[in-house]
Amino acid sequence: MSNRIGRRPAKSLWAVLLALAGCVAATARSASAEDIAAADRVVVHKAEHKLYLYSGSRLLGEYKVQLGLSPAGQKVREHDFRTPEGSYRLARRNTRSDYFLAIQVSYPNKEDEQRARKNRWAPGGSIMIHGFPNIPKHPAAYYASNDWTDGCIALSNSDMLEVWMRTQDNIPIDIYP
């Protein structure tokens, strides 16, 4: 079986994704509105390695996450391998990421930029919620049990698909220590 190496998954993977989306859509049609409620808020607790989806005060889902290589503390500059803390928004979606789906977080905010400027550092950017790498360098168990990102919030591919389907751009995401 030949597989193209590059930034985009092979066509067969796209076929699988489309089929999976069709299954999700079919399931959604047969499920009640409560079962498929859209999230209006995302919360991440770094110390717990958890991402939570909420609709109002109702918890819709809880997901295990992996964080930056050095997750403790606030992200202060580019290449510090920390996951930011604070209030942001989901900014845009990327289906052609190097990772299985990606949703950009609106880091840096004004406070992040001021903190970095004060220290004459670049604040960094491109913080995403995403799945595993499309071209893994390690076994899947490594990605599931270690902090491995440059500062992003990583989920299993199946959890990432669910988060992708239940969120939309411009909803708030609060990231706590």
Short description:
The protein is built from four helices and eight strands. The chain is of the alpha+beta class.
Count of beta strands: 8
The CATH topology is what? L,D-transpeptidase catalytic domain-like
End-to-end distance, in Å?
Answer: 44 Å
CATH class: Mainly Beta
Superfamily (CATH H level) name: L,D-transpeptidase catalytic domain-like
Query: Which structural class do the helices and strands define?
Result: alpha+beta
List segments where confidence is low: pLDDT < 50 over at least 5 consecutive residues. 1-12, 22-32
Figure out the total of helices: 4
Q: How much helical structure, as a percent, in the residues?
A: 25-40%
Biggest sheet: strands, sense, closure? 8 strands, mixed
Strand line-up in the sheet with most strands: 3-2-1-8-4-5-6-7
What is the general shape? globular
Give, in order, the helices and strands. Answer: HEEEEEHEHEHE
Integer-rounded radius of gyration = 17 Å
Instruction: Give the percentage of residues in beta strands.
Output: 15-25%
Mean pLDDT: 85
Count of discrete structural domains = 1
